[in-house]
Structure formats: C-alpha cells, structure tokens
Amino acid sequence: MNKKNRIILIIIVLLAIVAAFLTAENKSTTFRNDVKAFAVKDTASITKVFLADKNNHTVLLEKNGPGQWTVNGTYKARNSGIRLLLETMKNLAAKYPVPNKAHNTVISQLAAQSTKVEVYQEVYRIDLFDKIKLFPHEKLTKTYYVGGATADNMGNFMLMEGADVPFVVFLLGFRGFVAPRYSTFEKDWRDHQVFKTKLYNIREVIVETPEKPEESFKVINKDDVISLIALQSNQQVAGYDTLRLLNFLTAFNDIRYEALLEKMDTIKRDSIISSVPKDIVTLIDQQGDTTTVKTFFMANDRRFEDMEGNLYIYDVDRLYALVNNDRDFVLIQYYVFDKILRPLSYFNPVY
C-alpha cells in the first residue's frame, strides 16, 4: 500500500470513528436539543413575534426600530410589555420532559388550548465566527406552543413544533408561570399614550368646553412666543399666569388613558358619545399632525358623596373619552387629565 492510499485509509477510519461516536451519543441522549430549546438568547435580533390561540385571537408584534414596536401593523406597542416578553423569551428553560403517564393528557390539552408562538429574527446568510456577517434577512427561527400551568403553578407545558414530547418549562429567576405574558389580545399590547409632545414641538393647543364657552381658549406657540387667546371673543389674553400656562403645555409630554373599553354595551356607548362632550382638546404639533381627545362625564354609579352626604351627579375620579381619531372609547382619570383640562380662568393671575 502506497503512502497516499495509507493516508486515505486513515482518514476513512477516523471519520468512521467520529460517526460511530456521534451515533452512540445520539442514542444515549433521550432528546435532541432543538426540541427543548425554547429560549431565544439573542432577543435583539428578533424582528417579529406572532401569537395565535385556539379561539382565533391573533397578535402580530413588529419591530420598526430600536425600542419601536407596533401591534397588528396599526397601533404603537406598549414598551414595558415588549420588554417583559423579550426577557421571558430569553430566560426560558426546559426543566424536564412530560412523564409518559401524563403525555397524552398534556398533548390533548395543548391541542385544545394553547398559544402558538412564532419568532422571526434577523439572520445572516454568511456568519463567520460571529465576526463577519453578510446578507441579512428575516427568518422564522422558532415555533412553539405555550400551554397551561403545571399543578404547582411553577411552570408551563410547552411543545416545540415538530416535536413529539412536550416539556415543563420555567423562567429562570421567576416563581410562577408565564402563559399570561403571551397574550393574544390586542388591547394587552397597545400603548396607552394619548399625548407625548414636548413643549418645543407644540404649535397650537385648543381646549373647548361646549357647556361653558367662556372658558374655552387657544394657545399658540410661534417663534418661541406663547399667546393665550379666548375662543369666545377671539381676543388675546394679557397678563395671564405664565408659570401656569407653561405647566399646562409641558403636561402634554405624557398623558395616558387608563383602560380601553371594548366590551361596553353598544347602546350605552353610543348614548354617551352622542351627548355633548365635557371638553374637546386638540393639539397640533410643529409638523402639522393633529391629536384630538373628547371627554364625557361618567355617571356616579359608585355613589360618591360630598362633605354633606349629598350624591355627586357624576363620578369624581374618572371620565370617558374618545381618542385615536374617535376610533377608541377609553376610561381616563381626572388625576391624569386635569393637567390639560384647565378652564381659561385658571390662567388668571393669582395675587
């Protein structure tokens, strides 16, 4: 046997040994790693998450930029909810496979009631040692099903798509179950922001009080000069309280609603929004974009009383409101919105 053939024979023998070793290792390993690899270590590369349950509720979360996500391609996503989801996906750990005696029961439960999770990431067609990355593209990298909680509520049953065996999965550093973090309801992911405009970006604010037109006003911010105008007379107000007006304008930096009222009876809702609004607040920014909120009184169903024991006509804590171009009917708090629901007389000088 010549030297060349001897080298070839040695290589073949070595490859056979390696193949035998890998085969033995696979046989000794009960489960492949991919059927229990629920965690996504590089959550920064996630571009999209699709969630769907067995009742046809779906949510699509898409990343448009650093810290910028949308819900179902329409609404801004709540950043705190996105952060919690990404942290959850990063720290999932498979604890153990479901025992044989419970296998069929868990599989049936997952088939009847679970949330399908699709994870899309930006990956590279060429990735050399994590140093040279070329030709990025979006790819579906992981699909799994999140089922109910375990009996001790310390984990969830999960199944990787294509796998035969479900696992009990828990969250590192967390005592509890994670299914609620995979909500398939749009309202759970939407940002509650109504106004988020800094003073320098405000061009104009109009506050209308239909039942008290003398308290309606307009504020114009032009060339760093702020003017206060009474709407009823269309006259500029002189000698107003400058500090109060500045506090009013800066409050538009962060105004949020409390809850989205999707399940209210349609007749009741229509009755409320067809009534005369308490206030109408319109903000126009320097780019010309307009945001309008209409508020409505809430009946005093909780029976608040004044100091003398008389019932107030309306709820003293909350109002109804129409936001997002009248598309959404929401609940708001006086505590939050009072800062921008000021009457014109509020800006009178205090001596």
Structure description:
It contains seven helices and 20 strands. It is an alpha+beta fold and 351 residues long. It has a nine-stranded antiparallel sheet, with helices on both faces. Strands 14-13-12-11-17-18-19-20-16 form a nine-stranded antiparallel sheet. A two-stranded antiparallel ribbon has the order 10-15. A hairpin with a 6-residue loop joins strand 8 and strand 9 (167-171). Mean pLDDT is 88; it is low at 20-31.
Gyration radius (Cα, Å) is 30 Å
Overall 3D shape: elongated
Strand order of the largest sheet: 4-3-2-1-6-7-8-9-5
Q: What is the tally of beta strands? A: 20
Percent range for β-strand residues: 35-45%
**How many distinct helices?**
7
* Major sheet characteristics: 9 strands, antiparallel
Fraction in helix: 10-25%
Structural class, by secondary structure, is: alpha+beta
Task: Give helix and strand order, one letter per element, not per position.
Answer: HEEEEHEHEEEEHEEEEEHEEHEEEEH
Tally of distinct domains: 2
Low-confidence stretches: 20-31
Span of the ends, CA to CA: 111 Å
User: pLDDT average, as an integer?
Assistant: 88
In short:
The protein is an alpha+beta fold. The protein contains seven helices and 20 strands.
Keywords:
351 residues; alpha+beta; nine-stranded antiparallel β-sheet; 7 helices
